Amino acid sequence: MLIAKLALRLRQFYFSRVAKYTKADEGFARSYLNIEEWALFSQLPEFEKKHCVVVGRRMLWEAGQHPDLDERKLVRLGLLHDIGKIFEHNSIYTKAFMVLLRFFVPRLYDYLAKLGENHRFLRRFFIHKHHGREGAKLLERMGESSEVVAMVAKHDPHYNPWGLDDPLELKLLQEADSAY
């Protein structure tokens, strides 16, 4: 299990280094986001935008597998799930360090995240850990539906494992997010 998780993280890091955010990715994102959402999405680093587009495309595929679900909502969830990371300002290497720290020394990661709530230099740890909640607050202020806001807030299965009372859309989002 430990080896599989580490292999997944290494694959994700490799993907973030080689996959480039393209004009086609931009067109895909623009076709699903409104002007305010696009303005926020554009603030993400390129590697995060690429990740969100890949998750959004996976959600589009999932919509085809589940015709009873709202395709537009699924894709928008994929595109906006990491929007709280606009406050993080991390390079791919800083992000990789945080992911590895969370993986190997979770108590230190949690401690730094707690300190980061009120410490400017450590703020990136707080945002990294709570980006779902911070992004949900942002989307709520923009008038996003309470359902989408709740799923963005709970999308990280590390902190919020999917439960039987949660909507299927959240499970699909967590699976897509964890795969890429």
TrEMBL record:
<dbReference type="InterPro" id="IPR006675">
    <property type="entry name" value="HDIG_dom"/>
</dbReference>
<feature type="domain" description="HD">
    <location>
        <begin position="51"/>
        <end position="178"/>
    </location>
</feature>
<dbReference type="Pfam" id="PF01966">
    <property type="entry name" value="HD"/>
</dbReference>
<dbReference type="InterPro" id="IPR006674">
    <property type="entry name" value="HD_domain"/>
</dbReference>
<protein>
    <recommendedName>
        <fullName>HD domain-containing protein</fullName>
    </recommendedName>
</protein>
